[in-house]
Amino acid sequence: MSQVTTVYTYKANVGETISSANANNLYANINTASTTINADNTRTEAISRRHLYDMSELPANVHVTFTYLKEVGQHLASGNYNSTTFVDITHGVTASITPPPGSIVLKPNEAIRLQFSVMVEAAVAGANGTARALETNNYYFRFFVNINGVLTAVSPEYGYSLLADATPSAGGGGPNGWAPSQTEAGASFSDIANQELIVQVRVAQSYIYINKTANDQTITETKPRVRVQVPNGTATANTITLKEFEFVSMGVR
Q: Do 48 and 111 sit in the same domain of this protein?
């Protein structure tokens, strides 16, 4: 937890009469030193003075344990996405959160936690040769944070495949995954002749962004974004249909 430094300055000598002032010297020193307790957490999950501040006395845009915990989502609309670069998720409502009152100051070693889940409702293979389109069958999500006015990718890319074995035999796979039977054991996953697109599946991602710099960062927006894999040859990109989603963003210390 937070630290306070004091010095015990009184040691009674043999035969000395101890006075209350001398005996209380240690406690007087602690009382004086307590006015300079630092604000650092020096142990995991410890409480610092920042956690105990009267929030009404805090300056604007400075958070204690967290300034905001916000959620955005929708369950009715759907939208198609086939960009091979990351784009916003905008069907129904935009999957984006602006912390109140428009920004927060993220101090060194403070963090933002991001969580996103979405239903992949449908998919359509790209044109100019379905086989070529399905060779590049992945789609990706990634978290972005606007840091000091710059939209920055802060997380890894979370990738998923659209393909599954469409012709299961005894002991073989099915539309929910690739599990070749004995008769299919020689088949390669790159052989897409027996593949179909996986849809009606919910995927979820979570990430904690920590300010590891030595300077404060102004955060004005957090959001997940989506893209599909760049197709091979003359094929066009696959299209995925996203439906209901939930996005949660919170600032934490």
A: no
